[in-house]
């Protein structure tokens, strides 16, 4: 284990580095010799002249960011257990129990009316530029794959073309676009577009508008996320827009209506305003009231997303979700991804994934044993590949039905978009050009999509959507292979028995047996026979 779990004072996230990379004090992150005359490349130095700007990952709008902290336990501290015996969910016949036969569909909600072809969801992509600029790929790709996509916080409030009367939204451009891009490409009723809301969204009536005007069936209350324990932030490089957001009730720093601030911005003393959302104040009474309001407004399914808060808050989330018959509870752990969160906060606050998700399982089991109905659960926090997806589902089985991922899908959509531009410009890098020079040659799922959609519809697909769809295709095949090896041919058979802990600490936290303790009773029975 490293002597320190955190990297301090230099990071690609804040565009900072140490002068003496090879000689750094672990506790402070400072160069062992800090020299008078250094220009200040480290985070301390940069903060000396850019101050609060260095709190956030940079440059805003073209990056996503995840924590650098090394946690004592993570999902790599578990291995997936395969077996040579039997099959669950299919006949134990070598000609039938093949990995393409593994079923990955999941149905959830109070009436099992939400159907996903694949067991994952994008938990919340909000008002950051990185989300807006890649929404086309994310929405169309998710719809084609039959999975879920959540419209995150502040989309209505950030829309300069939104029409707001008496403090309530009556028309939008951006939210309409986000919903329609998904719904126009949805196939056979699979997948879902979900509208999330924070305090500002709720005051604007964004979810009521989405339900009544846009036909959204799934809405999500937001307590928080894993990346930070404050409200959402973005940066604004336009004075008029900053003033508009201030007038709409957001916290905007510095105050864009202050004449001195306006003059400082105009002369270039700073180039970006910060827009912040308020923190929520959870109470059972207000929670119950809001759930009732949304159902009265016509919401068919109500979700809750909570962040990496302390265990008591997780207990509240599980209890409230059960008591008020929610359809999905998403629990997002520390260290995941963000479009803009305070960098040190992202690294140094909250419950990490294994610890938080283990507690989630324990709390859900305790309530279930007392007769409470547990809604579908989703776990999030740094998931990227099929092995992690399997582990997340297994650690929380039978309650966890979905894994939440955002940063990895955004990366896939961005790469697809970038390749599409390179094809159009005729400047493909050699690394990609070896596969061909066209969409049909480069994207391995292109022929499948062309066949299913037809030539006209396929030609209209943005490359970002094909990139996301192709990434999902890889995850699906990889997950099927892992499930086949564990002889689990449908998701309902995935269980905690499919995992083994590689360290005593991982075993103690999760309740998953240490690897040499797995199957002890069965081993004794076999050897004694």
Could you walk me through the main structural features you see in this protein, from its secondary elements to its overall organization?
- The protein is of the alpha/beta class.
- It folds into three domains: 12-55, no CATH class; 69-229 and 299-336 and 344-498, TIM Barrel (Alpha-Beta Barrel); 499-528, no CATH class.
- It has 22 helices and 17 strands.
- It has helices at residues 43-50, 129-132, 135-145, 155-158, 174-183, 199-204, 206-214, 239-247, 259-266, 284-297, 311-323, 343-348, 353-369, 386-395, 407-425, 430-433, 439-442, 446-453, 455-459, 463-485, 504-510, 520-528, and strands at residues 78-80, 106-108, 114-116, 120-125, 148-151, 163-165, 168-171, 192-197, 218-222, 233-236, 251-253, 273-276, 301-306, 328-332, 376-380, 400-404, 499-501.
- The protein has an eight-stranded parallel beta barrel with strand order 4-5-8-9-13-14-15-16, surrounded by seven helices. Strands 10-12-11 form a three-stranded antiparallel beta sheet, with helices on one face.
- Strand 6 (163-165) and strand 7 form a beta hairpin.
- Helix 3 packs across helix 20 and helix 11 (311-323) packs across helix 13.
- The radius of gyration is 24 Å and the shape is globular.
- 46% of the residues are buried.
């Amino acid at each position: 284990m490293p002597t320190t779990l955190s990297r301090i004072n230099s990071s690609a996230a804040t565009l900072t580095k140490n002068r003496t990379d090879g000689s750094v004090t672990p506790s402070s992150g400072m160069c062992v010799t800090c020299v008078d005359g250094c220009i200040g490349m480290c985070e301390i130095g940069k903060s000396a002249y850019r101050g609060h700007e260095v709190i956030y990952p940079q440059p805003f709008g073209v990056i996503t960011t995840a924590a650098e902290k090394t946690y004592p336990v993570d999902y790599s501290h578990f291995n997936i257990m395969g077996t040579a015996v039997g099959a669950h969910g299919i006949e134990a016949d070598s000609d039938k129990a093949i990995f393409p036969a593994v079923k990955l569909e999941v149905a959830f909600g109070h009436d099992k009316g939400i159907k996903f072809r694949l067991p994952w969801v994008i938990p919340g992509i909000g008002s950051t530029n990185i989300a807006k600029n890649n929404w086309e790929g994310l929405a169309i790709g998710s719809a084609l794959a039959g999975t879920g996509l959540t419209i995150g916080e502040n989309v209505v409030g950030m829309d300069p073309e939104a029409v707001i009367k008496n403090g309530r939204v009556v028309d939008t451009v951006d939210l309409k676009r986000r919903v329609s891009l998904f719904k126009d490409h949805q196939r056979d009723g699979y997948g879902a577009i979900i509208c999330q809301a924070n305090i500002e969204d709720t005051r604007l009536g964004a979810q009521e508008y989405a339900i009544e005007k846009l036909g959204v069936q799934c809405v999500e209350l937001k307590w928080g996320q894993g990346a930070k324990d404050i409200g959402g932030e973005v940066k604004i490089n336009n004075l008029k827009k900053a003033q508009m957001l201030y007038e709409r009730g957001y916290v905007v720093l510095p105050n864009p209506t202050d004449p001195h601030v306006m003059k400082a911005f105009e002369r270039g003393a700073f180039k970006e305003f910060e827009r912040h959302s308020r923190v929520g104040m959870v109470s059972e009474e207000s929670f119950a009231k809001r759930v009732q309001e949304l159902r009265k407004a016509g919401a068919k399914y109500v979700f809750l997303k909570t962040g990496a808060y302390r265990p008591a808050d997780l207990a509240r989330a599980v209890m409230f979700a059960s008591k008020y018959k929610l359809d999905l509870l998403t629990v997002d752990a520390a260290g995941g991804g963000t479009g803009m969160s305070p960098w040190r906060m992202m690294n140094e606050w909250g419950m990490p994934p294994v610890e938080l998700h283990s507690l989630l399982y324990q709390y859900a089991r305790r309530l279930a044993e007392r007769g409470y109905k547990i809604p579908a659960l989703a776990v999030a926090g740094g998931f990227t590949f099929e092995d992690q997806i399997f582990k997340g589902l297994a650690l929380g089985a039978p309650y966890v039905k979905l894994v939440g991922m955002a940063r990895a899908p955004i990366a896939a959509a961005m790469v697809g978009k970038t390749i599409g531009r390179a094809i159009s410009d005729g400047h493909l890098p050699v690394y990609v050009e070896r596969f061909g020079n066209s969409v049909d040659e480069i994207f391995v799922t292109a022929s499948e999509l062309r066949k299913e959609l037809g030539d006209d519809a396929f030609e209209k697909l943005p490359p970002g959507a094909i990139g996301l769809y192709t990434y999902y295709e890889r995850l699906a095949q990889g997950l099927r292979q892992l499930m086949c090896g564990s002889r689990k041919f449908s998701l309902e058979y995935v269980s905690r028995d499919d995992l083994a802990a590689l360290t005593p600490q991982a075993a103690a936290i999760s309740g998953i047996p240490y690897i040499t303790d797995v199957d002890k009773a069965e081993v004794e029975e076999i050897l004694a026979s």
